[in-house]
Write a structure and sequence with these properties.
The chain is of the alpha+beta class and 434 residues long. It contains eleven helices and 17 strands. The strands form four sheets. The protein has a seven-stranded antiparallel sheet with strand order 2-6-7-1-5-4-3. A six-stranded mixed sheet has the order 14-11-8-9-10-17. The chain starts with a strand and ends in a 15-residue tail after the last strand. The structure holds zinc ion (ZN).
Length: 434
């Protein structure tokens, strides 16, 4: 079996090479925005301004007829190069990839319309947002002395980590992406590697409830806590953001402050990713089957409806402020990323990751299957069957049970709570592994 794997390394371009990389990035962004503009105009003029655009069937038909395709745009590349000769200095496949990105964004836009949503039209990219370009097939190679040779750019030094992980990408290299993160440049190889079939040594299974109070609660009652250093960094970030908002717009000091904010953002992202990797690794080593709830961030992030008093018409507290805090934490916790890391690691370890519907997992009694309604603040599950345990622990047992298709256990579970991880003090920051 073959799977795709990504390898990310830091690049060390010279000053001149950095300029060239940035120049390429700028041209790619320019092309992206121009291609998007063209598609947008076509949509605007041919579809939205059509006299019968209000009719849904007509609109769908028009959209189908007039949407620009990737091929239509790609055939214009030679013409673009004639008018703007500097585009000759960029590998042609890199330019094709830019157009493919535009296509992907627009496809997603039309798919969402089709699904009945009202998405905003794809946005133009500013220089801070557009941060990578890709060689989709060729135009790149690795040299013997740890350099990467990029077509029309040059030969740039790469740093492979030392020790056990010092592995230049193995297998068949598929794509190569150059990415800027702040002032740093990275290279990401996506390789097709042979995947051996591995059998996990244990037959153990675990259900995991991801939460806000504890990062995760396992079906054996243990918990994984959010590391304290993340909260510390968040505090630092808040301070820097306040400092940024005090600086005058367009000033040099403001730009410096914005750079500092960006740096801490990246730091937090890396720290969190590192934490996720560590915890995922422990779980994968121990368990053959891991069951999660399917995440539904779209629903969870919705604002609660305003509540009105029936007789007086006054607005009542609807929990919006509490939920706003909750939303923030949902995005902060990065559960989706954690689950994805688990899925990736499981593949190499012979474990399997299962996802179950989150319906009733916290309300249902893990002992007898009865529904015991409780709101978010109630932290304890207490059932008439004698089942009494922490709310999240109860949910984790349900998740495991649903994942393995088992009936409620009819067993009392009152194991004392024990923390799986101590919230640790600042751990050294490591570069993220992909
Ligand atoms: Zn019960």
């Amino acid at each position: 079996m073959k799977t795709l794997r990504a390898y990310k390394y830091r690049l060390y371009p010279t000053k001149k090479q950095t300029e060239k990389l940035q120049w390429t990035l700028d041209r790619a962004r320019e092309l992206y925005n121009a291609a998007l503009q063209e598609r947008r105009d076509a949509y605007e003029i041919k579809v939205k301004r059509h006299p019968n655009a209000h009719d849904e069937a007509t609109r769908k038909q028009l959209t189908k007829e007039h949407a620009l395709t990737y091929n239509q745009q790609a055939t214009q590349l030679p013409e673009i190069k004639r008018v703007r000769p500097e585009y000759h200095d960029i590998h042609s496949q890199v330019l094709q990839d830019v157009l493919r990105r535009v296509k992907k964004t627009c496809d997603a836009f039309f798919r969402r319309i089709k699904e009945g949503q009202t998405p905003g039209y794809p946005r133009f990219k500013g220089c801070g947002v557009y941060d990578s370009f890709t060689f989709p097939q060729s135009g790149f190679s690795l040299t013997e002395d740890n350099r990467v040779c990029l077509s029309k750019i040059g030969t740039i030094k790469v740093k492979f980590p030392k020790g056990k992980k010092a592995r230049p990408p193995r297998g068949e290299m598929k794509t190569c992406t150059i990415k800027r993160e702040g002032q740093h440049w990275f290279i990401i190889f996506v390789c097709k590697v042979e995947q051996e079939i591995i059998y996990h040594p244990s037959g153990e299974a675990v259900g995991i409830d991801l939460g806000l109070l504890h990062f995760a609660t396992l079906s054996d009652g243990s918990t994984i806590e959010n590391p304290r250093y993340l909260r510390k960094s968040a505090k630092k970030l808040k301070k820097l953001q306040e400092a940024l908002s005090r600086k005058k717009r367009g000033s040099k000091r403001r730009r410096k402050a914005a750079q500092r904010v960006g740096k801490v953002h990246r730091q937090i992202r890396n720290q969190r990713k590192d934490f996720h990797h560590k915890e995922a690794r422990k779980l994968i080593i121990q368990y053959q089957s891991i069951v999660f709830e399917k995440l539904q961030p779209a629903n969870m992030s919705k604002r609660p409806k305003p509540k009105q008093d029936e007789t007086t018409g006054q607005y009542l507290p609807n929990g919006a402020s509490a939920k706003a805090g909750l939303n923030k934490s949902i995005h902060d916790a990065g559960w989706g990323q954690f689950q994805q890391i688990c899925v990736n690691k499981a593949e190499c370890a012979g474990s399997r990751i299962l996802f179950v519907s989150p319906k009733d997992t916290s309300q249902m009694c893990s002992g007898c299957g009865a529904l015991v309604q409780k709101n978010l603040e109630e932290r304890w599950h207490e059932c008439s069957c004698g089942c009494s345990l922490d709310r999240d622990h109860n949910a984790a047992i349900n998740i495991l049970r649903i994942g393995l298709n088992h009936e409620p256990t009819h067993k009392k579970r009152q194991k004392p709570f024990q923390a799986r991880t101590e919230p640790s003090e600042d751990a050294p920051l490591k570069s993220p592994r992909l």
